[in-house]
């Protein structure tokens, strides 16, 4: 029996086609997230699924460096010539709406070798590195978004209650449909709730292996967009849909285990953190200034990262500290998933595969280097005048730190690193002369799926 490179047989692929056809699917779209955090896609009639898996569909290398204004930020390795193949992962294919199915893809070269421009396989490589160190990584994500009218304006509201029942009652048709849709697609949301910002909601996803978590986030964003449009609305995943409004985060949670034993619990350190767990936190914080351009690198991102907004805008960690970049969650009866760290800095403009690779990779780096656990910041860091806690807010400086980072080059590879910097510099070039209000308006739906 013929096998594809991931071991799926051609008979299994034909059964998948039949199952999807039986579920009324006509169009199958495969997605890849570009370096600016925008999800790109290619579609085929569902009967072409085996070809999408085996030979892949053509995509220019420049797909990775399309920008929010749909211009291309060429790099030394990404020009107008050459072609890549987008190959669908059949294990993750799901029906997502009437007639429509989705699955994630990886970029391959024409000769069938993996492309160094593939974010998804970059994350898989960092996961493998963790495994070679005897570590199992699990990640979760919280996705915040803001609902608007279909044409992108504020919804007419008499009032908004942060985390309020009023917000649920007013939006119940949308929320019930969203929950049912997410459940049916296999995403399995952990929570669906109104956030503190006006018209802002959050879906949090269960912990999973890192690539599965990132795939689920891409799917969830698409489903949120689909359900919002069914209800005559749109969903913004901008870090700041309105310049004077509330920011949307895309926080990442990470837990690590060795031989079934967690690194963030059962140890001698504060809150049960083990020595290796402390090194992981040390690595995440040490890498943060260089990797900020991966976590929250859009031209709008730093406007969200302000003290007092629970976006974790201080380079420190603390138990349940919402103002610390790394919020530590201890193993308690109230935390059935076990101890983990939450990186609150991340926003929805990040390529989730690259952000997860950066977070896990910097934790591994801390473990390999035996970095110490930095001192805990147990109170609001805004009250401290310590310059070491300050987060760089100048976009050019954030990108310069990323560009010069040996850690980023190692984790992402030089081709991706150059592309991420090129895309974000292009954003700055086209937006620099505009007011904050104009920028927020121009980018309100740039990251919507
Ligand atoms: N909306 C906040 C942010 O920008 C996060 C609020 C929360 O802690 O859930 O990250
Ligand atoms: Mg939240």
Major beta sheet, specifics?
A: 9 strands, mixed
Which cofactor or ligand species appear? glutamic acid, magnesium ion
What is the general shape? Answer: globular
End-to-end Cα distance:
38 Å
Helix content: 25-40%
Classified in CATH, the superfamily of the largest domain is Glutamine synthetase/guanido kinase, catalytic domain
CATH class of the largest domain: Alpha Beta
Main structural class: alpha+beta
**Secondary-structure element series:** HEEHEEEEHEHHEEHEEEHHEEEHHHHH
Low-confidence parts lasting 5 or more residues at pLDDT below 50? none
Report the β-strand fraction as a percent range: 15-25%
Q: From the alpha-carbon coordinates, what is the Rg to the nearest angstrom? A: 21 Å
Number of strands: 15
CATH architecture of the largest domain: 2-Layer Sandwich
Average pLDDT, to the nearest integer?
95
Count every helix, treating DSSP H or I runs of 4 or more residues as helices: 13
What is the CATH topology descriptor of the largest domain? Creatine Kinase, Chain A, domain 2
How many domains, as an integer?
2
What would your notes on this structure say?
The protein is of the alpha+beta class. The protein has two domains: 10-117, Ubiquitin-like (UB roll) (Roll), CATH 3.10.20.70; 125-442, Glutamine synthetase/guanido kinase, catalytic domain (Creatine Kinase, Chain A, domain 2, 2-Layer Sandwich), CATH 3.30.590.10. The chain has 13 helices and 15 strands. The chain has helices spanning 10-22, 49-54, 119-132, 165-170, 172-184, 210-230, 275-295, 301-304, 352-369, 395-403, 406-412, 414-431, 436-443; strands spanning 27-33, 39-45, 57-59, 84-88, 94-97, 100-108, 135-149, 189-194, 200-208, 233-236, 252-258, 261-262, 317-319, 326-329, 340-343. The strands form two sheets. Strands 7, 8, 9, 10, 11, 12, 13, 14 and 15 form a nine-stranded mixed β-sheet that branches. β1 and β2 form a beta hairpin. α5 crosses α6. The two termini are 38 Å apart. The relative contact order is 0.14. It binds glutamic acid and magnesium ion (MG). Magnesium ion is lined by residues 142, 144, 195, 202.
